[in-house]
Fold each of these.
Amino acid sequence: MGAVPKRKVSRHRRGNRRRWQFLTAPQLTKCPDCGELTLAHRACNQCGKYNGRQVVAQKTVDDEEE
Ligand SMILES: [Zn+2]
């Protein structure tokens, strides 16, 4: 006999070990405005736009839209 587990792994311990298998990676999409990778269904982190609309105020120096 080779290496044999000393005791049974309980359902909880087995599931706890495998919990990472059920995680999903964040859905990343390219921003249509600046092309930056951002979270889907969120305003873009770079330009603050969502659905072609400015939804988050930008802190950039070159602010043309105002
Ligand atoms: Zn963007």
Amino acid sequence: MCPKLTTGKCRRNSEELERRDQSVSTAKKAPQRQCIGCGEMKNKRDLIRILKGADDSITIDATGRKNGRGAYLCPSMECFKRAVKGKGLERSFKTAIPKEVYENLEKEMERLGRQE
Ligand SMILES: [Zn+2]
């Protein structure tokens, strides 16, 4: 049973938990980042990178290779919503986030969620 997530995401969540257990022993190799939604430290690879570019545009950086200031978020709407509520992005980027940016990010999150 998975108390928090719907059945579709349940399986992936247990995989994440397994991976996190592994990353404890390989902590030095795997860079950890904090999710701005739930505040948990996770393997960088398992998080979505949100990027603030030089032109102050805020996008999801799927490649993780673009330059700019990044914030990290679990690939779940749950964490996204918590980040919005808790102003995690504002705090990470030290700037006000326009409503349209959140709307775009939400669409992106939904799209990423559907790919699984
Ligand atoms: Zn999270």
Amino acid sequence: HPAMDSPSPWRTLLASLIILMALVSPTAAPPPTPGEQAGALLAWRATLGGQSQRALRSWGNTSTLCSWRGVRCGARRRPVITGVHLRGVRLAGTLGSLDFAALRALTSLDLWRNRLAGSIPPSIAALGELHALLLQGNQISGSIPPSLANLTRLHLLMLHDNQISGEIAGQIGELGNLVSLDLSGNQLVGSIPCEIGHLNHLVRLDLSDNKLSGPVSFCPANNSTVNLENLNRLSLSRNNLAGPISKDIVNLSSLQHLDISQNNFSGLIPGGVGGLNKLTFLHLSDNQLSGPIPPEIGNLQRLKQLNLSANHLEGYIPTSLGNLTQLTALNLSTNELIGPIPKEIRNLVNLESLGLGQNKLTASIPNSLGNLTKLTTLDLHDNQLSGNIPRELGYLVNLEELNIYNNTLSGSIPSSLGNLTKLTTLYLCYNQLSGSIPQEIGNLRNLVWLTLSSNKLSGPLPSGLCSGGRLQNFTAYNNMLVGPLPTSLLRCTSLVRFRLERNQLQGDISEMGTQILST
Ligand SMILES: *[C@@H]1O[C@H](CO)[C@@H](O)[C@H](O)[C@H]1NC(C)=O
Ligand SMILES: *[C@@H]1O[C@H](CO)[C@@H](O)[C@H](O)[C@H]1NC(C)=O
Ligand SMILES: *[C@@H]1O[C@H](CO)[C@@H](O)[C@H](O)[C@H]1NC(C)=O
Ligand SMILES: *[C@@H]1O[C@H](CO)[C@@H](O)[C@H](O)[C@H]1NC(C)=O
Ligand SMILES: *[C@@H]1O[C@H](CO)[C@@H](O)[C@H](O)[C@H]1NC(C)=O
Ligand SMILES: *[C@@H]1O[C@H](CO)[C@@H](O)[C@H](O)[C@H]1NC(C)=O
Ligand SMILES: *[C@@H]1O[C@H](CO)[C@@H](O)[C@H](O)[C@H]1NC(C)=O
Ligand SMILES: *[C@@H]1O[C@H](CO)[C@@H](O)[C@H](O)[C@H]1NC(C)=O
Ligand SMILES: *[C@@H]1O[C@H](CO)[C@@H](O)[C@H](O)[C@H]1NC(C)=O
Ligand SMILES: *[C@@H]1O[C@H](CO)[C@@H](O)[C@H](O)[C@H]1NC(C)=O
Ligand SMILES: *[C@@H]1O[C@H](CO)[C@@H](O)[C@H](O)[C@H]1NC(C)=O
Ligand SMILES: *[C@@H]1O[C@H](CO)[C@@H](O)[C@H](O)[C@H]1NC(C)=O
């Protein structure tokens, strides 16, 4: 899972857990003998594939048990194994033949990123001291054994990126010490058990990329009114979850990261979301949400990413979004929003990506967008925007993608767009743009995709077109262009698609075709 590899909160969490694990001294049953433990590990190794035998060739001499590869012992007179850490060493086999009872003093078992298959044996419940179980990135299948609920000391349970199926049983609520639970990237079905709400130490919960369905609610543990009060990261994306965004979610007051995108949630976005004032990341995209965008979202002053795209949201874009000055990405595209682009958007000076395409927005493009100089992507396509293309867009020197096709924009193409030297994508088609195409457009040497078709453009094509040698798709059909084809275009070997019909252009297009075929 890419999210696991880098972020520092993860490291901090791990570090504090290690300290915690060091402080909590295991009590319980008599510790296993060295022979018992060595026997269990050697018997397991014997069942693993050949490559694994090589990786574990240091295993053998019982009197040096604590220096076997991946084996860690606690500080005791007799060697007692407290950790088995074999991350990414290509172990192939199953856990079925591992005698967990003989390793009952284990506090951490880390077999991350191997080639383990088969299911998690119910006998894993014997690891009563276990704080961390990391089995992610294997090919483990079968369902989560109910007996896992006996591992009540678990802080970390990482089973993501496997092929685990079946339902998540309500007993998971008995793992009351869990800090991080990641079951993402499996094939889990059924609903999310409300008992997850009992896990009051949980900081991070990731159930994304499964086949979970039904509504989401979290029930509080006995004698508690609050759910998941420490949860700061909740990812449920890419499932088939449905129903409203419940008050149980809106009440998760510590949330910093909330991603429920690509599900089937419906109903309104509750105004109470505006109370989650620690949020930096809010993705509700690709659901069936309807109604207006609640203005209270403007209270989320720490937001860096807001994605509400691909829903059925309607009404005006609230001006309060102009308060979200930390935003780097704002995506409201593919909804039914109406009215103008609010001028307050100009306050979002940290924006790198602005997506408002496929709505019903009207009026003109605000000149003040020219102040958002960090923008790399500006997408306003498929709206009803009118008026001129503001020449101020020429200040957006970091822009790589400018997509304003299928509006009712008129006037000429501002020559200032020639300043946008990083542009790879310039979609201006399906508008009412007139006048000649500025020569400066020919200077955009990084252009790969250029569409000018279905406008009222006249005059010649700019002479430098394709001078950067990157142009792949170029359309200018259905205009009133005249004159010869520029030689730079005739020599354009990168082209895979061009359409210039319905103009009065002259030149040997067949020669161009030959060039294309010959590459
Ligand atoms: C096992 O390790 C001990 C301690 O290092 C050593 O004395 C002994 O010879 C080793 N036994 C074998 C069979 O290698
Ligand atoms: C799990 O715990 C329950 C109740 O504490 C106990 O009855 C059961 O035997 C345990 N299961 C395993 C596999 O240890
Ligand atoms: C919660 O309370 C119910 C009934 O009072 C009881 O059966 C259950 O065991 C309790 N659960 C916990 C985790 O204390
Ligand atoms: C709540 O706690 C009180 C005392 O701590 C106890 O008497 C009561 O039974 C508990 N209620 C539930 C539902 O567990
Ligand atoms: C929301 O949390 C507050 C405390 O933070 C609590 O008083 C309230 O009952 C909770 N509401 C719901 C619906 O869970
Ligand atoms: C999504 O929910 C709607 C009702 O809100 C339902 O009609 C539709 O079948 C659901 N889609 C899927 C893929 O479950
Ligand atoms: C926003 O959500 C849409 C739909 O799920 C997705 O295609 C897009 O990549 C997301 N945008 C950002 C900036 O995350
Ligand atoms: C947020 O925006 C609204 C509308 O633009 C404004 O009235 C309000 O004062 C702003 N709030 C803050 C905290 O800046
Ligand atoms: C851009 O910002 C500057 C300084 O904040 C301001 O003076 C100027 O009017 C803004 N330009 C536009 C087009 O909004
Ligand atoms: C332009 O947008 C309208 C809706 O606003 C849509 O019906 C039409 O198919 C779009 N045309 C093109 C060429 O994308
Ligand atoms: C941007 O383009 C305009 C018109 O082509 C030109 O006058 C201006 O100097 C350019 N600005 C920058 C910063 O390159
Ligand atoms: C470019 O043209 C090719 C060939 O017609 C087409 O398959 C592709 O979708 C186009 N790409 C873009 C980004 O327009």
